[in-house]
Write a structure and sequence with these properties.
heterodimer, A: alpha/beta, Rossmann fold, Helix Hairpins, Heat Shock Protein 90, 3 domains, six-stranded mixed beta sheet, about 20% strand, B: alpha/beta, 5 helices, 5 strands, globular
Chain lengths: ~375, ~130
């Protein structure tokens, strides 16, 4: 059972005792809330007294009369807002003029309860407010979690770096203990697996370096006119040993020379990552088509492969940090899970979009759209 | 000779290498080992095989798969001991395990372990949980 602390500010004793009595045994429950809420009622006779209570203790809901002997309800409301208190305010008043309603709402009052009210009316109002408060706190909690993303990123990173170390260490111990006898031959698979993990870890570290440079914004950028066709061709050439090894043909389709104002190194990272994925997740004898074309004021770069493809729900989370689509097909392909999120972070700098279309077993197509500026 | 049935231990980890190594180690301790690489696989194996204890990796498909799996299993079989193993620990200064009582109650794992744990220690912990 959750407890919400409710403050009633009213100079009429009847209202104060009435609210206390009505909410005494009242609970609010919703299917989506983990627990029911009950109310702990505190009372204040004046605005001054209310401020004192608000300063001294943590409150959840304030029922606030506007017409008070000293400072007015609206001033209490202002105080609550200035202090950025996590409190829902409801105005109770019989003098609810349109003016006050507008002012109070602008100040963040959530609701009005007209005075006099029946127990039923008050409970209904409290029920809505509790729900509102619950949702608001959930949202805040999620925002705080948003701020923790960086921390979480480091946790995942440490996980990603420690896992291969654990795996390699484990194999070395099995060998040290001569678990499967004296013949080195028995350990060949473990050695292969260890080397595979070492390679994956090296890739992760390289990607990490790109990644942190972008994240920290420290990477020095030099924007100049770049012919993307040239960059793509250089990337394709650089990947030739890899594409031969994977038996994948890579083609560049680029009919006109289009230049874009960009940082060369950033373009290389983007294109390298896309081409490397297209080769890596391809089938034997497959092909990769890199297409570059102008479409009005946009430059469209697409990388199409005939690879393993993926399901629609997988494409949606593809650009998050450390996301790798896990399936039978990807199990033995190493990747850091950072490549596409690096691409996305870089593309953000260019206000460019990336999208993906994919069909399991058929292939994937990644499309990047750059905006071409007039004077380039 | 007294013949006792071997206890069954389910190990769930998406790292195929670590899974293999842990399997070998736990088998050497004298237990039967069943393995799973995903949450879904683990759930179906759990129903079929009813292991006596489970060792779950924390981060699998998502960062909290281990917690979710633990929560689900404990909901159905509260008496089965569960160990959650994680490579992310206090040692790195990045303990995002279970700090609050509230979390502990929700997750209900019997033990949280660093993946770097020595196997003899793990053996002791398993015996303790199985009351051997």
């Amino acid at each position: 059972m959750g407890k919400l602390k409710l403050l009633v500010v009213d100079d009429e004793p009847g209202i104060r005792s009435g609210v206390s009595r009505i909410l005494e045994n009242y609970t609010v429950s919703y299917p989506f809330m983990d627990e029911d809420f009950e109310f702990d009622v505190v009372v204040a006779e004046t605005g001054e007294e209310a401020l004192e209570i608000l300063t001294g203790s943590k409150l959840d809901i304030v029922l606030l009369d506007n017409k008070l002997p000293g400072i007015q309800g609206i001033e209490v409301l202002e105080f609550i807002n200035e202090q950025k208190m996590d409190v829902v305010v409801v105005m109770i008043t019989s003098y609810a003029s349109l003016d006050l309603a507008v002012k109070a709402t602008r100040q963040g009052a959530y609701d009005f309860v007209p005075k006099p009210f029946t127990p039923k009316e008050l409970r209904a109002s409290i029920e809505t407010i509790t729900k509102q408060l619950f949702l608001r706190r959930m949202t805040q909690k999620l925002n705080v979690e948003g701020r923790q993303v960086r921390f979480q990123f480091l946790s995942v990173l440490s996980h990603e770096l420690k896992s291969p170390l654990n795996a390699i260490e484990g194999y070395l111990r099995l060998m040290q203990d001569k678990k499967y006898g004296d013949s080195l031959h028995e350990y060949m698979e473990m050695i292969d697996r260890s080397l595979f993990r070492v390679q994956a870890m090296r890739n992760l570290i390289l990607d990490m370096l790109d990644f942190t440079r972008i994240e920290s914004g420290k990477k020095s950028r030099k924007l100049e006119p770049i012919y993307l066709c040239e960059v793509v061709q250089q990337c394709i050439d650089a990947f030739q040993p890899f594409s031969i090894q994977k038996d994948v043909d890579v083609y560049l389709n680029c009919s006109e020379k289009i230049s874009i104002q960009a940082d060369r190194q950033e373009m290389e990272i983007i294109i390298n990552n896309l081409i490397s994925n297209a080769i890596k997740y391809n089938k034997q004898g497959g092909r990769v088509d890199v297409n570059l074309k102008r479409d009005g004021s946009r430059l469209i770069l697409s990388v199409e492969d005939t690879g393993i493809g993926m399901k629609k729900e997988d494409t949606e989370k593809l650009f998050e940090d450390f996301v790798r689509i896990k399936s039978e097909h990807t199990k033995h392909i190493s990747g850091s899970g950072l490549g596409l999120s690096i691409i996305r972070k870089l593309l953000d700098l260019y206000d460019a979009d990336i999208s993906v279309e994919s069909e399991p077993g058929e292939g994937s197509c990644f499309t990047v759209m750059f905006k071409l500026t007039e004077d380039v | 000779m007294l013949k006792t049935e071997k206890k069954k231990i389910l190990i769930v980890d998406d790292d195929a290498d670590y899974l293999f190594q842990l399997k070998v180690a736990v088998q050497d301790m004298g237990f039967d080992v069943i393995t799973a690489e995903t949450q879904k696989e683990a759930e179906s194996i759990y129903e079929k095989m009813r292991p006596d204890l489970a060792i779950l990796d924390l981060m699998m498909e998502s960062q909290d798969t281990g917690f979710i799996l633990c929560h689900k299993i404990k909901g159905k079989y509260p008496d089965v001991p569960i160990i959650i193993a994680s490579a992310v620990t206090a040692e790195t200064g990045m303990l995002f395990d279970v700090n609050t009582l509230e979390d502990q109650e929700w997750i209900k794992a019997d033990l949280f372990l660093d993946k770097g744990i020595r196997m003899d220690q793990l053996h002791k912990e398993i015996n303790k949980l199985l009351k051997i």
